[in-house]
Amino acid sequence: MLDRDIKALVQYGLQTGLLPECEKHYAVNQLLEVFGEKEYQDVELEEVQEPLAAILERLCDEAVRRELLEDSIVCRDLFDTKLMNCLTPRPAQMIDTFWKHYETSPQEATDYYYDFSCNTNYIRRDRIAKDRKWKVDSAYGKIDITINLSKPEKDPKAIAMARNAVASSYPKCLLCPENVGYAGSITHPARQNHRIIPIRIADTDWGFQYSPYVYYNEHCIVFCQQHVPMAINRQTFRKLFDFVKQFPHYFLGSNADLPIVGGSILSHDHFQGGHYTFAMEEAEVEKYFTVPGFEDVEAGIVHWPLSVIRIRHKDTDRLIELADHILKNWRGYTDEEAFIFAETDGEPHNTITPIARFKNGMYELDLALRNNITTEEHPLGVYHPHAELHHIKKENIGLIEVMGLAVLPARLQGEMQELAKALLAGEDLTKNEQLAKHAEWAAELVKAHSELNEENVTEILQEEIGKVFVRVLEDAGVYKTTEQGRERFMRFINTL
Description:
Blueprint: H1 2-15, H2 24-34, H3 52-65, H4 73-85, H5 91-104, H6 106-119, H7 125-128, E1 132-138, E2 141-147, H8 156-164, E3 197-201, E4 204-210, E5 220-224, H9 234-246, E6 251-253, E7 270-274, H10 279-282, E8 285-289, E9 298-302, E10 308-313, H11 316-331, E11 343-344, E12 347-348, E13 350-359, E14 362-371, H12 399-402, E15 405-408, H13 411-425, H14 439-448, H15 457-476, H16 483-493
Parallel strand pairs: 2-15
Antiparallel strand pairs: 1-2, 3-4, 4-5, 5-7, 6-7, 6-13, 8-9, 9-10, 10-14, 11-12, 13-14
């Protein structure tokens, strides 16, 4: 069995182009060494038809049987990445191949790199396929909803092992370039099958890679080669456009640089991009305006639940100048009537979430105005999902959500299945420990949908979850999409 599965794994490497024919013997013996077996002299391989995940699962089962690893998700991930390391080309080889493809076109290069990242199992396609995804109509366009199931939950064994693990600060975070080739630990994923593309933006060294969790098509991460904190400034806009010029089929955006309205990693400067059209990109400008000194730059307020300014021009230098002007004004802007405070007790609150793209022969920059002020009524943030929506979404509204894609917690998958059963059975949700948090929302849902039955309950739940997420985005907007909200928005615009 071991013999067959190792040969199947090597044949997979040959079929996907990870391994050249001349290295198959070496790869087989590397894999045998992992299991403590003797080398082979002759290697005969047969074509592989089954998925990579099935081969790796059997090899992990064998390793558990031989007591080479604990039988937990985390330990299996560490071990199967060690196996894939035996098939993964060295960084210099892969980088050279990428740039050869780039000579033909940037898209051919990214197509190669994305397939490579999937074939090495850095992007685990079998897990990504489990994610729940659907779209819902809204007043702002079609909103994307996802329940992310590809990020494995730690099981009790792994949690216990992590508690006893020796603390380590290497790599400093999940984005540091030192992750390439890293064997991993109980507290840090293995990255032996991970490769990054070094690039230059704004005359500084950055790295380009894909997210292993792929929240949308070709979800990429562009990160500083140095472990420095997030910062939104003039150079941010230049960096975004420098990347988009090199890869014009990709958009690139940045999380905000303040807690609550920022992303999950503020300690390492990075951007996120990809080959996907979000609802915000398709949203139209509802009101155009002109900024003195920038009459040549198209500018307007986007019809979107968050407060977004869109600027367009063929010359990125003009966009960078205007974006810097808007950012500086917003950083210091206070409007007490609108409950916008630039700072309180010396703590800054105003920042921007920017997104750059090349579209229809023009460069575009969307600037979402953000504010992270908190109050006793809203301790997690005034412009953050409010408490009545936390049963669906409590986490920060980062770049991906700003653009119109909900990344909802994995717990919702099971909860929605149980909720569907409970609604059909007419159960009292307040007495159900798991579902009690949904009780008030579910009661309104039942009132609104007298047609609810076994055939349509899932569709109705998905539609209503979508409506909640739209409200989440509206909560995150510093200016509401009302007449009063737009008047207040224009007060800021007029300061420009």
